[in-house]
Amino acid sequence: MPFPLPTADAAAMGFRTEQLERLVALIDRHIADGHYPGCQIALARNGKLALVRSFGNAATQPDRRRATDDTLWLLYSNTKVIVAATMWALAERGAIRFVDRVADHVPEFKKNGKGAITLLQLLTHQGGFPNAVVPKDAWDDHAKLRQVVCDFSLEWTPGSKVHYHGLSAHWVAGVVIEAVTGKDFRDVVRETVLEPLGLGNDLFMGVGPALAARVSDMHYQPPLGGTPQNDPDNNAAEWRRAGIPGGGGYGTARGMAALYQMMLADGVLNNHRLVSPRTLQYALRNWTGDRVDEFMGMPMHRGIGPHLRGTTEAIRGLGSIASPRAFGHGGVGTSYCWADPDSGVSFAYITNNRVPDPWHSWRLDHIANLVHTAIL
């Protein structure tokens, strides 16, 4: 499957190469200083790929394996944008409306006072159950998965707060996708979004043994510092296979940059229209205003999938100097991917070590701002 974006020279595409050289040098220093074993970046503009670069190691134990441009990285919550794009497409087909209640499609979800929760509230982190958990034995047993999410209990009144739902809301979204299509949500994502857009070799809702040689191991930072260690939970076969819709997708940086190019091109990639411009305008609207996301501690300007930069002083991941219309999403302690409608630029930065704040947020801002200042 050919990649949907042709390559072109970065300088000819209107990028300041000295700023891109500073970006590469910064990531080289991060790896030399032991912040993460490996990394991949991709930069695109106006339907062309300007830069793809892989750094360091995809695996460290028991043997080192160098990262390549085909390496697949755990996307963590960048996965939410892929799932949201699937929901956009289902809405265009008339299978759902974002003003629908979840219980309109999954009637038993109304248990425990959840009957009024809309799909819009669900996907903009206003559902009211941010800490609900799906156990491992439901990851592959989707009949049990449906039962588990319907049994979720509310922690606060839906719509009364904005509070990031790390995994819980998108498990519900997966159940809704299955309810309206009659198929495994992972298959629906692949058939509806990834393959038609030409990204079937770059983005995956879960990976099996056949792709093991391409997958980068995930690492975590020991509490007292030191060498990043392999993460046994996120490298386990059941995690990789599950395609957890809130955080278990895998992909390349070029794949994520291309997905965001689709959004900048009014819904078209690989000569395939996924959604209409009007659907994108609706999805990429700031639905939560300047209300503080109580998990993030700042306004996050939530859209249906990505969030927007807006005009507040601080924002997470998109770069403090980004255009107010820029939008994107991150992955816990590791990554951020974003697009800028004012310049036609999309960018993906993915690493394989989950590091805590404050350093994580500092480096995301630094990385993104180097890219923004490279744009002419």
Write a brief structural summary.
This protein has 376 residues and is α+β, with helices and mostly antiparallel strands.
- What is the CATH architecture annotation of the largest domain? 3-Layer(aba) Sandwich
Percent in strands: 15-25%
Indicate the radius of gyration in whole angstroms. 19 Å
CATH fold-level assignment of the largest domain? Beta-lactamase
Mean pLDDT: 97
Instruction: Please give the largest β-sheet.
Output: 7 strands, antiparallel
* Order of H and E elements: HEEEEHHHHHHEEEHEHEEHEEEEEEEH
- Main-sheet strand order equals 3-2-1-16-15-14-13
Helix content: 25-40%
CATH superfamily caption of the largest domain: DD-peptidase/beta-lactamase superfamily
Q: Count of helices?
A: 11
CATH top level assignment of the largest domain: Alpha Beta
User: Shape, please?
Assistant: globular
Tell me the number of strands: 17
Class inferred from helices and paired strands: alpha+beta
